Amino acid sequence: MGRLINMTKINRWMVIWLLLLSCSIRAEDSDRIEQLRNLAVQWSTGLSSFSGQYTLYEQRSDTLLVTHVDFRWFNDSKYVKVIYEDRNNMAIEESFHKRSFVSMFTREQEGREISSVKPPQNLPSFSIPQSSLYTPLEFFFQESFWPEPDSMASALARGDYVLRRHDENDVLVRYAFDGCHEIHFDGLQRITQVGIFSGVTPSDMEFAQQMQMDFLEFRFPYITYFFDNYVFVQGMWFPLEVRSVVYRLNPEGKRILNARRGQPAAALEINRTGAFYEYKHSTIVLDEKTIVINEPLDDSYFTIDIPPDARLSRTGKSMDYATYIWRKRLPYIVIAVVVLVAFMLVMLYFKDRHRRPGIWGSS
Predict the structure, then answer these.
(1) What is the rounded distance in angstroms from the CA atom of residue 363 to the CA atom of residue 339?
(2) Looking at the whole model, is its pTM more than 0.70?
(3) Secondary structure (3-state) at 108
(4) Hey, is 305 helix, strand or coil?
(5) Which of 103, 315, 319, 326 reaches 20 to 30 Å from 143, CA-CA?
(6) Residue 348 above 80 pLDDT?
(7) Can you tell me the distance from the alpha carbon of 74 to that of 2, in angstroms, rounded to the nearest whole number?
């Protein structure tokens, strides 16, 4: 009897110890989650300016597209020059600086380069979505953190979190109804991978709890980013290679989603059957020698050198860009000439009056 009482006391203390341990682990996880959130936000917002060149490789099925990009950004100013190898090295060069947007297209024709310029305007109208160029603003998630419409910093300020481990490193998992994010860190606290997945609904969570399953199985991938070859520049870690994989549902995945839309097991079935495929692979490789980050960029970084013989397209007509600039400046030149001539006439009048004082009756 005494032994039974002792065992009961031991079991009771064991339960209390396990509860305390569980609370301690949860507190540690909570502290670590907050630390990782801050690290991710600091990294994302740590880039304040950029100038550099990189090559973008895009693989779709059997097609490899190679694009060379020169991108510059500081405050509200942006400059981008894109050269497409698959389009006979056609180039698009665009800049928005001091509320002036300039766009120039250059192509090779009959052995010589032909440039076409759009008239400058007050609002930016970049012809190429910068998300398709994987600019640093894109892969630092400063403008969007898809499917969230705003930045990583804003997205990480809300949502629910859980801490996981992968390859002995921490993984911060943010989950919400409209999408899930996984942020992987290495031993130096650098972001090595960002995964974007379909959202987890309240019904998914409830079903997973009832079935004693991991609720993170109730989702499938959208996009995965990989960050490699970090260098330490201007007080921050900067990746020189960024890869991304975009996923799409295959016909079976679309059938499952349509047939079981709204049901908690739809995403689970898509995930377990692998009813998706890798739609596009993209890799950007940055030229370390050209990179300038977190430094003020002056006007020269955003100036487009327009050839004098460039053609300007305006309201269906075409003229030399030099002619356009001359015509645009002509009214100001005329006003300046008129003011100068008037000033010279006034000076001559007073000079002549000073030379002939006797005419006005002096003796």
Answers:
(1) 37
(2) yes
(3) strand
(4) coil
(5) 103
(6) no
(7) 78
